[in-house]
């Protein structure tokens, strides 16, 4: 039976969202267990009021809460008994297979990195997220904001961990197709860092398909899109804004006259399908990839349904034993990259001597 640790106090609404979200998740996954972390008294009262199945829930007391606007380093230093940190500690101690929080993103990343450390060979963890694309395809994109300035080697590491995650979760798809986000598909385009990353990825054993533009995220052409956190975060927020705008525009058009209102009734099944497919709550749950433990970040302002989906993301990663597979894959991939870099350096030295 898989166990998830839940930062019950985190997020904009705290218990008002995490409790109903957790109970909805338990209903969906009858073999899962939860460790709800937070103020014991408040948790007991809220769970009792919700008629929670306590046979599948443990309460872990925590005396502190990290504020949504709290500086990450201050939270790391001064909030050692926060619900966020105690939840992550459950993963480190082996009591839970994953931790989920809707709390302060910077504080969660800093705390998770301090407590769990990174996978050997990975310098920095990245924020990754699955996004919907053509058909039923899902595209993993990283980094989405953890590292705004990256070296070429770090971008290659993101490609490795992203590819290994997709391989772990969807082994039936074969070798993941990896694309490097750029302003064009030609290898001569992009910043110096992107050009260097292109060369490194091309010389690797990964299934690198080359540079891709932003529309490839939704085209189903690749399984993993790699970018630095600055570009990735801007693209993610642009996507979220565009979806919200389109939803509002469609609603406004169908309400503009009696004729369009009548047309809306006819189109209602299709509209519901569209809304469901692009409902941002279904894709709530960003992955802190590269850590020696599974940590999922829920959007701080999500509702209970969105929080349930974040728990689902954690559950499926833990069930697939993704961390073990990622660590094994990273070791193999980075070993090949190191060998090829040494070969290239030796060849360069030989040419200079000649």
Automatic annotation (TrEMBL):
Provide the catalytic activity annotation.
a fatty acyl-[ACP] + phosphate = an acyl phosphate + holo-[ACP]
Q: NCBIfam families from the xrefs?
A: plsX (TIGR00182)
The protein's matches in Pfam families, at most eight in alphabetical order, are given as: FA_synthesis (PF02504)
Query: InterPro entries, per this entry?
Result: FA_synthesis (IPR003664), Phospholipid_synth_PlsX-like (IPR012281)
Q: Which pathway does this chain act in?
A: Lipid metabolism; phospholipid metabolism
- GO BP terms, alphabetized: fatty acid biosynthetic process; phospholipid biosynthetic process
Q: Which UniProt keywords apply?
A: Acyltransferase, Cytoplasm, Lipid biosynthesis, Lipid metabolism, Phospholipid biosynthesis, Phospholipid metabolism, Transferase
Q: What does this protein do?
A: Catalyzes the reversible formation of acyl-phosphate (acyl-PO(4)) from acyl-[acyl-carrier-protein] (acyl-ACP). This enzyme utilizes acyl-ACP as fatty acyl donor, but not acyl-CoA.
Q: Name one GO molecular function term.
A: phosphate:acyl-[acyl carrier protein] acyltransferase activity
GO cellular component entries: cytoplasm
Subcellular compartments: Cytoplasm
Root EC class? transferase
Enzyme Commission numbers on file: 2.3.1.274
The stretch of residues making up the signal peptide is none
Where primarily located? cytoplasm
Name by which UniProt lists this protein: Phosphate acyltransferase
Subunit note? Homodimer. Probably interacts with PlsY.
Q: Which family does it belong to?
A: Belongs to the PlsX family.
């Amino acid at each position: 039976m898989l166990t998830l640790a839940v930062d019950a106090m985190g997020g904009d609404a705290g218990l008002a969202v995490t409790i109903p979200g957790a109970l909805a998740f338990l209903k969906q996954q009858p073999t899962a267990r939860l460790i709800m972390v937070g103020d014991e008294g408040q948790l007991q009262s809220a769970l009792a009021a919700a008629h929670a199945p306590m046979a599948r829930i443990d309460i872990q007391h925590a005396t502190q809460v990290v504020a949504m606007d709290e500086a990450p380093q201050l939270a790391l230093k001064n909030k050692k008994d926060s619900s966020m940190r105690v939840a992550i500690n459950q993963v480190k101690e082996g009591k839970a297979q994953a931790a989920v929080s809707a709390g302060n993103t910077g504080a969660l990343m800093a705390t998770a990195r301090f407590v769990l450390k990174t996978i050997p060979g990975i310098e920095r963890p990245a924020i990754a997220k699955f996004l919907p694309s053509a058909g039923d395809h899902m595209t993993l994109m990283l980094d989405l904001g953890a590292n705004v300035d990256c070296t070429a080697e770090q971008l290659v590491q993101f490609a490795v961990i992203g590819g290994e995650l997709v391989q772990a979760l969807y082994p039936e798809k074969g070798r993941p197709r990896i694309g490097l986000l750029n302003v064009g598909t030609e290898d001569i385009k992009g910043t110096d860092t992107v050009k260097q990353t292109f060369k490194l990825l091309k010389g690797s054993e990964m299934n690198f398909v080359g540079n891709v533009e932003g529309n490839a995220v939704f085209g189903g052409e690749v399984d993993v899109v790699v970018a630095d956190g600055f570009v990735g975060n801007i693209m993610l927020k642009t996507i979220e804004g565009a979806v919200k705008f389109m939803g509002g525009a469609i609603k406004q058009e169908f309400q503009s006259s009696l004729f369009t209102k009548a047309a809306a009734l006819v189109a209602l099944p299709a509209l519901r399908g569209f809304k469901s497919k692009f409902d941002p709550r279904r894709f709530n749950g960003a992955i802190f990839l590269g850590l020696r433990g599974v940590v999922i970040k829920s959007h701080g302002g999500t509702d209970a349904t969105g929080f349930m989906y974040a728990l689902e993301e954690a559950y499926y990663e833990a069930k697939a034993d993704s961390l073990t597979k990622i660590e094994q894959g990273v070791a193999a991939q980075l070993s090949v990259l190191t060998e090829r870099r040494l070969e290239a350096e030796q060849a360069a030295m030989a040419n200079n001597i000649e």
